[in-house]
């Protein structure tokens, strides 16, 4: 599919459509949709901005590429004056006091936010069922989950309710729902985009990630949001990626894949055969393919969840009904904290907070948390070695197809294990993109740190190859 | 007060118990073979002293202040109301 952003820009400039009509059409589609993707519609704000774009065009002024383009925001980002609920009971009345840096950059470029999107509460989930707004339904088969945690964002893009959406990816929360709904979803290199104004889940892997229908739209949005931000000191300066550079795919020579991912008993037989068929097509283009050794899936999942739970227990400790959130009063401050948190956090969120406090406590931290950190170092070193041998690592996005709505909440361990192919790249802080090709839930393209350009380049190569 | 704090107290969540599913994940870590059990901190995102943010107070806008007040869980005469302070 060609760039929808470029297409809308042309239509606006040529006056084939008005911005107000475009925004109204998207808002109506979102309002009527039955996939539970919407937490808040930003009707007034969006139409006001659209009218200004139309006035500019009528005046003969030049408009920027993103000006007037409607987009969605996962409901974990701050957008001043709008609700930021994290799909949680605790923050259901919380209004953003300021705007996240990544979102502000899109606003500065003229893009128009139209919806705060449903997701797993605080990013805690892989199915977008852990939410007070109702389970997000899959865009292809509404009996299945939309994926998570950025499920509402991926479904909105898939259904053309937004041109692009901004999800958040901690262990696969952009890539997995993108795969489940057949769209592109990028987790950039950690630090490329500021996390300021993104509600923290696990700060050492949290990434802002765009979801769209083409590599070109991902590139445009990525370039707009990237850059060093004094408000997030883990950010770094990066060069803009040019359109020409990602169309030139000649310098990709070697691709690797983790053979234990594919030889695992847990992988669906069709996903496995489709993945291997894709590998053959890549080989037929003259690219060398190498099998790589990697950590076992259960080690990856356990390392990720150990560290993520420890970080989320710490990050969510401020949500006590006094500093933030909907308070339930009790006899004293301590009891009010405990009752508020007990009643207002979901079961999955409580499970992760308790797990996090468990591993951080004396007697457990050495044998679990510190060992988890050591394993993370080993995983990162493994990646550094691999990217000395190959340009790209290719993998399926998920071992299985999307589960039915209701199944994941019954079996959290199975849900955690379904993240087996995404969490390792998060621990490595690598750029990694879901491409809606190759298997039913897509392919995951990963490159070395700071090489987001190569990931988009390979996505374009796959468009012509598979 | 007991020196041992249980996870429900640590988490401020009434009646919280360790979960079986999560314990299974931790068992994998406990049993994992690593060449070095001490994190090297090679992959931390350290910030150079030269790149620290300036230590200065930035005044919030009037709108931001108003939204922060609107978000107070309980407000009385412009003050944030808190529950009775923890007993000594």
Instruction: Give helix % range of chain A.
Output: 40-55%
Largest sheet of chain A: 11 strands, mixed
* Major sheet: arrangement of strands of chain B: 1-2
Strand content of chain A is 5-15%
Head-to-tail CA distance between termini of chain A: 14 Å
Q: Structural class per helix/strand content of chain A?
A: alpha/beta
- By DSSP (H or I, 4+ residues per run), the number of helices of chain B equals 3
Poorly predicted regions of chain A are: none
Order of helices and strands of chain A: HHEHEHEHEHEEHHEHHEHHHHEHHHEEH
- Quaternary structure type: heterodimer
Radius of gyration of chain A: 21 Å
Taking the sheet with the most strands of chain B, its summary is: 2 strands, antiparallel
Overall pLDDT level of chain B: 81
- What do the pLDDT scores of chain A average to? 96
Q: Biggest sheet of chain A, strands in spatial order? A: 1-3-2-4-6-5-10-11-9-7-8
What level of helicity do the residues of chain B show? Answer: 25-40%
Compute the number of strand runs of chain A. Answer: 11
User: Biggest protein-protein interface?
Assistant: A-B, 75 and 54 residues
Shape of chain B: flat
Task: Report the principal-axis shape of chain A.
Answer: globular
Per-chain topology:
The complex is a heterodimer of chains A (466) and B (88).
Chain A: H1 4-13, H2 19-32, E1 38-41, H3 43-58, E2 70-74, H4 101-108, E3 112-117, H5 151-158, E4 164-169, H6 175-180, E5 184-187, E6 207-212, H7 215-225, H8 243-247, E7 254-258, H9 259-263, H10 269-284, E8 288-292, H11 297-315, H12 333-344, H13 347-360, H14 365-389, E9 392-396, H15 407-410, H16 412-417, H17 423-427, E10 432-435, E11 443-446, H18 452-465
Parallel strand pairs in A: 2-3, 2-4, 7-8, 7-9
Antiparallel strand pairs in A: 1-3, 4-6, 5-6, 5-10, 9-11, 10-11
Helix pairs in contact in A: 2-3, 7-18, 11-13, 11-14
Chain B: H1 7-11, H2 20-31, H3 62-70, E1 75-76, E2 79-80
Antiparallel strand pairs in B: 1-2
């Amino acid at each position: 599919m060609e760039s929808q952003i470029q297409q809308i820009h042309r239509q606006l400039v040529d006056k084939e459509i008005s911005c107000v009509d475009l925004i109204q059409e998207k808002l109506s589609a979102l309002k009527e949709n039955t996939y539970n993707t919407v937490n808040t519609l930003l009707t007034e704000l969006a139409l006001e901005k659209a009218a200004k774009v139309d006035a500019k065009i009528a005046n003969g002024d030049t408009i920027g590429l993103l000006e007037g383009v409607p987009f969605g925001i996962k409901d974990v980002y701050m957008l001043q004056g709008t609700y930021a609920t994290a799909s949680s009971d605790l923050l259901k009345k919380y209004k953003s006091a300021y705007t996240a840096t990544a979102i502000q950059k899109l606003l500065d470029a003229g893009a128009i936010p139209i919806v705060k999107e449903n997701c797993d509460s605080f990013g805690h989930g892989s199915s977008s069922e852990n939410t007070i707004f109702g389970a997000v339904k899959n865009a292809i088969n509404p009996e299945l989950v939309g994926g998570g945690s950025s499920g509402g964002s991926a479904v909105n893009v898939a259904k053309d309710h937004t041109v692009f959406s901004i999800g958040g990816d901690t262990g696969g929360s952009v890539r997995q729902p993108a795969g489940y709904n057949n769209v592109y979803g990028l987790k950039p290199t950690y630090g490329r985009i500021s996390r300021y104004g993104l509600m923290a889940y696990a700060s050492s892997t949290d990434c802002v990630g765009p979801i769209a229908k083409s590599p070109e739209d991902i590139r445009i949005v990525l370039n707009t949001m990237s850059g060093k931000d004094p408000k997030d000191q883990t950010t770094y300066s990066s060069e803009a990626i040019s359109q020409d550079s990602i169309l030139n795919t000649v310098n990709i020579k070697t691709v690797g894949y983790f053979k234990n991912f594919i030889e695992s008993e847990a992988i669906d037989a069709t996903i496995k055969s489709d993945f291997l068929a894709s590998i053959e097509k890549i080989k037929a283009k003259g690219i060398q393919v190498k099998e790589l050794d990697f950590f076992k899936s259960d080690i990856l999942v356990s390392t990720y969840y150990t560290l993520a739970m420890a970080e989320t227990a710490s990050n969510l400790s401020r949500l006590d009904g006094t500093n933030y959130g909907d308070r339930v009063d009790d006899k004293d401050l301590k009891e009010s904290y405990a009752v508020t948190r007990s009643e207002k956090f979901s079961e999955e969120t409580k499970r992760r907070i308790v797990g996090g406090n468990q591993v951080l406590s004396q007697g457990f931290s050495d044998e679990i948390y510190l060992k988890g950190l050591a394993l993370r170092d080993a995983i990162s070193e493994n990646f550094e070695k691999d990217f000395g041998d190959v340009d790209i690592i290719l993998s399926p996005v998920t071992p299985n197809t999307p589960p039915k709505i209701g199944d994941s909440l019954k079996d959290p361990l199975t849900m955690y294990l379904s993240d087996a192919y995404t969490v390792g790249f998060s621990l490595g802080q690598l750029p990694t993109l879901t491409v809606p090709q190759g298997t039913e839930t897509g392919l995951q393209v990963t490159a070395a740190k700071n090489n987001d350009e190569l990931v988009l380049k390979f996505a374009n190569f796959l468009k012509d190859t598979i | 007060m007991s020196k041992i704090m249980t996870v429900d107290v640590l988490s401020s969540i009434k009646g919280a118990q360790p979960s079986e599913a999560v314990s299974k994940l931790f068992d994998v870590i406990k049993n994992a073979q690593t060449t070095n059990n001490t994190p090297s901190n090679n992959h931390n995102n350290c910030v150079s002293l030269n790149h620290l943010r300036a230590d200065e107070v930035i005044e919030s806008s009037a709108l931001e202040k108003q939204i922060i007040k609107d978000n107070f869980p309980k407000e009385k005469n412009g003050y944030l109301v808190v529950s009775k302070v923890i007993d000594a």
